[in-house]
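Re: beginner question about structure tokens

> Can someone show what the tokenized structure looks like for a real chain? I only ever see the sequence side.

Sure, here's an example I had lying around. Input first:
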Amino acid sequence: MRAAFGALGALGALALVIATTAVATAAPDPDRKLVYTGQAMGTAITVFLWTDDELAAAKAADAAFAEMKRIDGVMTTWTPDSEVSRINASAGQKPVAVSDETFTVIARAQDVAKRTRGVFDITVGAFKGLWKFDQDMDGSLPTPAEVKKRLAVVGYKHLVLDKAKKTVFLKKPGMAITLGGIAKGYAVDRCVKLLHDAGFTSFMVQAGGDMYVSGKKGETPWVVGIRDPRGATKDAMFATAPVEDHSFSTSGDYERGFVKNGVRYHHILDPRTGQPAKASRSVTIRAKDAFTADAWSKVLFILGPTESQKLIKREKLTDFEVVWIDDKNAVTMTPAIKQAVTVLKQPTPGP
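And the corresponding structure tokens:
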């Protein structure tokens, strides 16, 4: 779910990193691009602004970073007092009242869960601490019995929303949700709105694998690169595409994971099995907003190109386009994005 795109040329590979206060990494270069970097929501954040007004740019970037940190504080599972942590702590006991925005994000997640029949399911939060792909990653694997036990409390149908009271209730003790598969997209869209409200029209915002591109660099489109999942470096790209006023999001198996005995284990779990999904190496989505791209990229990664295209047809999903690299290293694209993508080379083989 992270580190989807590297922007090309002066943008490098988007090895992104949020500070509490935004600091310009360099003076304006001849093409007037200012870059602000930092860390939030467990990933690297970068704001690129096409402007020569450093003061206004720094102020706008500060506001965007503060918004990211605010949303993180509300929706994280890593602090006990967040709204999501309070929901999890009350599983099987009582509904928990939440803010409008947390309710909105969870309701959107539930809509995707229903449309995908559980392929997207935020109750995979129950696997936290069992599969170790975060700060706790040590290369260990859970036993089948441990996975089966956690799987028994995974299921979006056991999450109850009360729209009138703005409450969330997990019906089974031991249930837990995570918004890691959708909250960053929501946060990117919030930052995009802040930058637009501040008068900026040409910029990029990226949070790990979630990106929104607004406008152009003068008369030239922003161009982004799609990472080669098995490339020798994080800068290795297998394709490029111009992007304007759209979100791009990539879910890949290469950022948070490890290879053990020739098998790759990674953080994108299939809620139906409790195991890392195997049908794809990466999935890239171009969508109207990052909220849409973030959630659906996980679904299409888990399903792979064949089953995904059946879902797209069944649900009449017309608000995004997709590039898959599947488990056999084959590239598949939906028609509209195929016209825009330039393939530089075939993706590198490897486990």
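Each token stands for a local structural state, so reading them left to right follows the chain. Helices lie at 54-75, 83-89, 100-115, 144-151, 183-197, 290-315, 335-338.
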